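Design a sequence for this backbone.
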């Protein structure tokens, strides 16, 4: 025979059931109302630029960086700072001309990092430290770009404006064996003015045989020509094959083959044609 249920016991049991039902209904709602944790991705980026550079020249590298505490849920809300330096056995004459800066917006625009290269032939590494920061925390990573400094082939040309020529600024494209390798900016030249054009082409070495450097005048609309009356001037040179000992060739031969003067006195002249000549 079941024991009789006392009124007080029934009231307590009902209260416990109601409390349990209330808790099971409230707790999930409270959990659903809690905001999701913010997502912070690690810092990602890279440094790009040439793998071979010439001695005694200025080079530009490019930095891309994003992520870290400066980005919350994919939105740029903080700051990214960077600092750059060179690493190598001998940094005499070599330095970073823009050693630090900030990335202050979320647009994907590479940051330019200028590097001045000295006369030492050696491998160097550009090291960029990137710090991504929010108002409460920050994270840091290092990005690197290795490159080699070599003695370049040098293209020289003496540009001489004619006695009746006022030559406005123009560009000269440089090509090696028909492949464009660079562009040189030439400033305005007064009549009879002389300008020493120089282009340094970095290379680990060219195959033996004949090669041709050429200069092509750009942006002058045919008003500026070389002494041959054309807008293109070229010269051919010969690279001797390496000796049987490749070790000796790499240590000594590169210096012997580079630094040759390929283009001599080249004449540039533009006749005056009034205000409509450009």
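Sequence:
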């Amino acid at each position: 025979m079941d024991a009789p249920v006392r009124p007080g016991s029934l009231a307590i049991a009902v209260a416990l059931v109601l409390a349990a039902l209330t808790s099971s209904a409230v707790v999930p709602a409270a959990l659903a109302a809690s905001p999701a944790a913010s997502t912070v991705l690690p810092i990602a980026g890279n440094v790009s630029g040439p793998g071979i550079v010439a001695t005694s020249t200025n080079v530009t590298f490019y930095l891309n960086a994003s992520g870290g505490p400066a980005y919350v849920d994919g939105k740029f809300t903080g700051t990214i700072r960077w600092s750059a330096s060179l690493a190598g056995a001998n940094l005499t004459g070599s330095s970073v001309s823009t050693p630090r800066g900030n990335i202050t917006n979320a647009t994907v625009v590479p940051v330019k990092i200028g590097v001045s290269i000295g006369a030492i032939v050696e491998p160097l590494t550009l090291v960029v430290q990137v710090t991504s920061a929010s108002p409460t925390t920050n994270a840091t990573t290092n990005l690197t770009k290795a490159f080699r400094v070599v003695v370049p082939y040098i293209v020289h040309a003496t540009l001489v404006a004619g006695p009746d020529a006022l030559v406005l600024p123009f560009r000269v494209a440089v090509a090696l064996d028909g492949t464009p390798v660079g562009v040189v900016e030439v400033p305005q030249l007064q009549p009879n003015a002389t300008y020493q054009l120089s282009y340094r082409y970095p290379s680990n070495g060219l195959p033996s045989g004949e090669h041709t450097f050429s200069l092509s005048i750009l942006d002058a609309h045919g008003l500026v020509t070389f002494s041959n009356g054309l807008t293109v001037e070229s010269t051919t040179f010969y690279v001797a094959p390496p000796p049987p000992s490749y070790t000796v060739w790499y240590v000594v031969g590169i210096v012997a083959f580079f630094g040759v003067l390929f283009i001599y006195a080249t004449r540039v002249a533009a006749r005056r044609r009034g205000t409509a000549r450009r």
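Residues 12-27, 29-34, 247-267, 271-278 have pLDDT under 50 and may be disordered.
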